[in-house]
Inverse folding.
């Protein structure tokens, strides 16, 4: 059988390309990370990240697996990665190995650190000082009742944050509009903005600006602004606690009562916990305002809630909110209590 030179050259080129592709595939297939657990189990896959003492691995047999770091005997990454240590040291483009409670970089220059010093493997860009991370949630609570009583209720809340290594911007907007038999029974809204500048971890300072209105509490407009100091006391998913304390200048404009302005102390408390598991979260938030001109005048807004995920990025939450105002005008109760079930979207 006779083959033309053109055919032979084409066949040779195709064979060479096939061999190169097979070699590249083989290299890719063997370039996997390895984790050996203390019970002797061996896991092959791709280390997606490690943070808060948990390593996340993408495997071909069980999908994404999360492993507590204290159960790991050894860990080896096949490709260079980036690591942040607890002291904020950044190791970029390093092939890593964990063994004998030591974290070692196998890329020159080789270094070794206690495994307890590991903070994050494969950090997000903002954690390396590159821009901001944007996240938040938008939720609604809607009630419509028809019959002997016609009720329409709409509650809305937006919380969003822009976070960098150095500072953070936070915005809260919420409101409530209710009608019973065509008559308005609630009409209030609040807008709060904060800017935080991080000091020596876990402390920060910032500036607060807030404006709110509540027609049925005789409040036409209350606005306040001032600096504060904050601290992240605990930051474990099982229990987080952040507190802020500051001073502010407050101006209040009432519909009927006499307008007022004064200096005040203010505080903000945030507590969360994943104690119940299943990606659910218990949370408590309290904001307080204490007049320095009249120490008997205190405004405290407290929310206790339980949130849990639904499908995709949607979640639901059930919460109770207490609004206390010791200086409420005559004829207005000093305590409001509200129960809500929210449906929202997080990003």
């Amino acid at each position: 059988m006779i083959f033309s030179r053109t055919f032979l050259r084409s066949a040779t080129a195709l064979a060479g390309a096939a061999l190169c592709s097979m070699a590249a595939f083989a290299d890719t297939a063997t370039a996997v990370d390895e984790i050996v657990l203390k019970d002797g189990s061996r896991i092959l896959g791709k280390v997606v990240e490690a943070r808060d003492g948990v390593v996340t691995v993408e495997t071909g047999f069980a999908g994404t697996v999360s492993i507590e770091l204290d159960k790991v005997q050894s860990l080896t990454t096949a490709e260079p990665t980036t690591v942040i240590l607890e002291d904020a040291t950044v190791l970029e483009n390093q092939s890593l190995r964990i063994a004998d409670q030591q974290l070692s970089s196998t890329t020159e220059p080789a270094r070794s650190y206690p495994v307890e010093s590991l903070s994050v493997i494969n950090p997000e860009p903002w954690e390396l000082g590159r821009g901001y991370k944007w996240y938040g949630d938008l939720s609604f609570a809607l009630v419509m009742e028809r019959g002997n009583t016609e009720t329409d209720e709409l509650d809305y809340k937006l919380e969003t944050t822009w976070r960098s290594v150095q500072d953070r911007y936070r915005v809260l907007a919420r409101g409530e509009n209710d009608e019973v038999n065509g008559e308005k029974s609630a009409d209030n809204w609040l807008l709060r903005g904060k800017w935080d500048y991080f000091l020596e971890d876990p402390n920060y300072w910032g500036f607060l600006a807030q404006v709110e209105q509540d027609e049925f509490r005789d409040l036409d407009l209350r606005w306040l602004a001032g600096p504060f100091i904050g601290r992240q006391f605990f930051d474990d998913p099982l229990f987080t606690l952040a507190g802020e304390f500051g001073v502010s200048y407050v101006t209040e404009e009432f519909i009927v009562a006499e307008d007022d302005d004064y200096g005040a102390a203010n505080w903000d408390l945030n507590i969360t916990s994943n104690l119940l598991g299943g990606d659910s979260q218990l949370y408590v938030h309290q904001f307080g305002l204490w007049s320095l001109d009249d120490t008997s005048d205190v405004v405290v807004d407290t929310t206790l809630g339980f949130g849990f995920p639904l499908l995709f990025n949607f979640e639901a939450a059930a919460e109770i909110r207490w609004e206390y105002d010791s200086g409420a005008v005559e004829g207005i109760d000093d305590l409001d209590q509200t129960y809500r079930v929210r449906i929202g979207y997080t990003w």
Remarks:
- Residues 31-123 form one domain.
- The chain is about 5% helix and 65% strand.
- The radius of gyration is 28 Å.
